[in-house]
UniProtKB/TrEMBL annotation:
One Pfam short name: MFS_1
Name by which UniProt lists this protein: MFS transporter
Major facilitator superfamily (MFS) profile domain: residues covered: 14-466
Alphabetical GO biological process terms: response to antibiotic
Lineage: Bacteria, Bacillati, Actinomycetota, Actinomycetes, Kitasatosporales
Organism: Streptomyces sedi
Keyword Metal-binding: no
Superkingdom to which the source organism belongs: Bacteria
Gene3D superfamilies listed in its UniProt record: MFS general substrate transporter like domains, Multidrug resistance protein D
UniProt keyword list: Antibiotic resistance, Cell membrane, Membrane, Transmembrane, Transmembrane helix, Transport
Any one GO CC term of the record: plasma membrane
Membrane-spanning residues: 12-32, 52-68, 80-103, 109-130, 142-161, 167-188, 200-220, 232-249, 269-292, 329-350, 362-382, 442-462
MF term (GO), any: transmembrane transporter activity
Amino acid sequence: MDDSQRVATRPGAALAVLAGAQFTVMLATSIVNVALPQIRAGVGLSDSGTTWVVNAYGLAFGVLLLAGGRAADLWGRRRVLLVGTAVFVVSSLAAGLAASPAALIAARAAQGVGAAVIAPSALALVMSLFPPGPARGRALGVWGAVSGAGAAAGVLLGGALTEVWGWPWIFHVTAAGAFLVLVAVALHIPRVPAVDAGRFDLAGTLTVTLALTAAVWGLTTARVSGWTDARVLGVLALTAVLLVAFALVERRHRAPLVPPRLFAGGQVVAGNVLMALLGSVWIALFFFLPLYQQQVLGSGPLATGLGQLPLAAANMLGSTLSPHVARRVGAGAAVAGALLVEAGGLLWLSRISPDGGYVADVLGPSVLIGLGLGAAFVQLTALSVGGAPPADAGVAGGLVNTTRQVGGAVGLAVLATLAGSRTADVATHLPRVEALTAGYRLAFGVSAAVIAGAALLALLSLRRTAAPDRRAHDRDRRAPAPDRRAHDRDRRAPAPDHPPHTDDR
């Protein structure tokens, strides 16, 4: 039995391994958040250095996802996944052993590089191992569940490990988990040739990486220095120039980093636009909600992490139910409904009180947000990657993760600016806790408006893109049954001289 046949007999094991890889990536995104005060004291970080413990990972992760996805398509998704996971293991150990700010920030950046390789290659393998239909829907439900659970578990695990053993253990435990994933990939994911024999687009990779780096740096700096700061304006202008250069490079390259055929259908475009809007609120939610719990409600790191469990559980439930709902009402209606549920939770959260409590102000909205977020994430991932040609599944996975990360950077920068301005405006005549609450209310209210707008956009755009798929499905159902005698002749026909090409899609 060859490897491709072996994985077909054990799809559950393969899915568990790939979901574990995604869980590890999402865990590392949020595990440092509640431990930042202890990390700052332990390593001697400045204010800007503390920020870069978070940003170094997110920046490297976000800007290299396209390159990671393209590398997976060109050089083999299993091979690239193994390399990325190995980089992640080593960099996580280095972060836990870091004794200086520079060493810690460099290790976090290397973690982000490994994550940028892991995420698109693992997603491409999921899409190729499970064909379109209920099996893929269930697999993506699992994928969405572990994505949301990983982000929430990072907050919980980070608080628990920091309080019990100290901050280095958040990196040691992450390294141990990634090592287990590395071994499992080697054992359970098949060896098969690469999908694409083209050349790697180095010029396109450099220009888009520099453009995204400049964009994220400019948006991050704008949160502190303001949108009219000369450095911010200069870097954002440089971003525009680099994006134009990237477009020109892609037009001339024979094997571009982002092939134009990726956008031949409307699903990939619509899915990525909606994922950017979802990401703009997703990352900001996990930034503002823990701050409200700690700075206003007075929760400690561990209690804050435990407070994320209902959101994580609801996220997993929404991810699991999403494929079933989509099969009944269609992808467009499923996405719009999920986004409206999330918008309702965010609107509820915009009514938080400075003298409230977790049960009264956080629990109910968290459940609604988790349900909507999980369901929308699964459907938008399926649209963005499933709508691409199979040979481009890696770069499609990188693209949808990039739009989520860049959307998150833009959303967090804008919402943090709005919240900070609102807090500063009312701080002159209100106590600090009430001023902070006013800023958080505004951030959650604007987030609700963004997601409600995304729900309307989903109804308008996905109705058009889903129609051809439904017509094709109806044609298939009305097609006459194949001739049984012809089928028997095909079975008795001799095999071709050369076996069909296999790939690792």
